[in-house]
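JOB MANIFEST
job_type = single_chain_structure
chain_count = 1
residues = 248
[input]
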Amino acid sequence: MSMRHEPVQALSASAMLELWEQGAGRDPLDQALLFLRHACPTQSFDALCEWTIGQRDACVLELRQQTLGDRIEAYAECPACRNGLEFELSCTALLASASDSDAIWTTVEQDGRSWELRGPNSRDLALAIAEADPKQAREILLSRCVRGEAGGAEAMMRNEDESALLAGRLSDLDPLAEVLVDLRCELCGERWQALFDIVTFFWNELHARSRRLLQEIDLLARTYGWTEGEVLRMSEQRRGLYVEMALS
C-alpha cells in the first residue's frame, strides 16, 4: 500500500457544496473518506480505506491548506476554570511531523520480544469505535495492528501493561494519528494537552462556509436572476463584490 498521490487541489465553491451535502449528518470517519475522495480522485475507495489515520489526516491537512490557507485559528476551553483560549496552528508545521514511510508493517522490540506493528486505518477504527468499552476497543485495534513472533494469535496473549506499551508504540509509528497541543490558560495558569482533530475542524469550517455560500447564492439569484451554477462559477472575490453591491 502506498499513499503517494497526485498534488492536492483546492476545493472549488461547487465541490465544497457537493462535499458538504454528501457528508451532512454522517460520522467523522465517513466525512474523512469523503475528503480523501475529493482530494485523490484517482485512488480507489478500498485503497483510501487502507491508509493509516495519520496518512489520511495528512491528506486532509493538505486539502485544507490548499482550500483555506495554511493558518488554523482554533479554540479550546480551560479544563480548570472554563476560560476560553484561542490558539493558532500551521498546516505546514503539522505536516512536518507526518510519517514518510510507506511500509505496512514495522518491526519493533518490546520487553525482549519482537513485534510487527502497523498504524490503524479507517476500517480498524470503525470496528474499534463500535465497541462501547474503551479497553475492548483498544484490544480490537491491537488484535488487527500487532503481530507477535508467532503471528496474530500470539498477539492476543498480552498482559495489560504490554497492551498499553504496544498501543503507545502504534502512536509513535503514526504521529499525525493523534495531534496533542500543549496549552496554558492565561487566566489561571492551568496547563493541559488538547486533542486537535483536523477532520472535525475542517468539516466545521466547511459547514459554515457552505451555509454562507448558499446565502450568497440566494441573495444574488433574487437580486440579479442568476442561476446557482452562474454564481458558483464566479471567483470568490467577484462574488463577494456582487454581494456587497446587492446588500448596499
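[summary]
DSSP finds twelve helices and seven strands in the chain.
The mean pLDDT is 90.
exit_status = 0
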